[in-house]
């Protein structure tokens, strides 16, 4: 018996191609839509048995917000995530949002169909090799040369890193100056340089970016710095 389903992907051609393949295999496709950001409203309205949602960035914060909303308003709908070979965070984020499974974009149609049937039956639909890869990466983490947190950290001087950590701890200019033994004007200059280098417009944005990218974990605790001399900005 065919499954009532929807296919949503930011790439309309991919969504339509997958929908066509599933129709040929006897499934009833209610819609093939893009972009994925509008998936929640469409799924809530049409109420399929299974919804396939494609994403190219499974580890990006907030990417599975549509899944959260779908499961909150239509808990009977099983959601399958279609994505690239994920890191462990990608798989964990999908399931934490309420997804029933994770299927690679390059999976054969037979594999996609098996995942659909498992999801409709209330089972977790994740290929064993994906779990093996996830556990392997967790046990033997590879170096990430393009890691955003590391890249941002390298942009800052040690002094600026300390300022950022203090900003993230909620310290204002006066507390930063006192804690680092510098003048408030110097502390204010350091803060402005940090904001400029990170490409953000406020201390709150800087703290959020640092937390999201893991920069704070890499920076470690606030060091005890010797007092600076002078009140002007550093070179």
TrEMBL record:
GO terms for biological process: phosphorelay signal transduction system; regulation of DNA-templated transcription. Pfam families: GerE (PF00196), Response_reg (PF00072). InterPro entries: CheY-like_superfamily, Sig_transdc_resp-reg_C-effctor, Sig_transdc_resp-reg_receiver, Tscrpt_reg_LuxR_C. Residues 4-120 form the Response regulatory domain. Coiled coil: none annotated. Signal peptide: none annotated. Keywords: DNA-binding, Transcription, Transcription regulation. Residues 149-214 form the HTH luxR-type domain. GO terms for molecular function: DNA binding. This is Response regulator transcription factor.
């Amino acid at each position: 018996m065919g499954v009532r389903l929807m296919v949503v992907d930011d790439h309309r051609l991919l969504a339509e191609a997958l929908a066509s393949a599933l129709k040929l295999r006897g499934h009833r496709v209610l819609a093939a839509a893009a972009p994925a950001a509008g998936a929640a409203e469409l799924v809530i309205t049409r109420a399929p048995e299974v919804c396939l949602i494609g994403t190219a960035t499974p580890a990006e914060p907030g990417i599975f917000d549509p899944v959260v909303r779908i499961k909150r308003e239509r808990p009977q709908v099983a959601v399958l995530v279609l994505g690239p070979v994920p890191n462990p965070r990608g798989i964990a984020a999908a399931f934490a949002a309420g997804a029933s499974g994770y299927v690679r974009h390059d999976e054969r149609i037979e594999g996609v169909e098996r995942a659909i049937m498992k999801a409709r039956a209330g089972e977790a639909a994740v290929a064993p090799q994906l779990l093996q890869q996830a556990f392997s990466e967790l046990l033997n983490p590879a170096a990430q040369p393009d890691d955003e947190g590391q890249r941002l950290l390298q942009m800052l001087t040690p002094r600026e890193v300390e300022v950022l950590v203090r900003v993230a701890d909620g310290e204002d200019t006066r507390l930063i100056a006192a804690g680092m033994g510098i003048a408030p004007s110097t502390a204010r200059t350091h803060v402005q340089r940090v904001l400029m280098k990170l490409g953000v417009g406020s201390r709150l944005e800087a703290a959020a970016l640092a937390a999201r990218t893991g920069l704070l974990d890499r920076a470690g605790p606030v060091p005890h710095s010797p007092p600076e001399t002078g009140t002007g900005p550093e070179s």
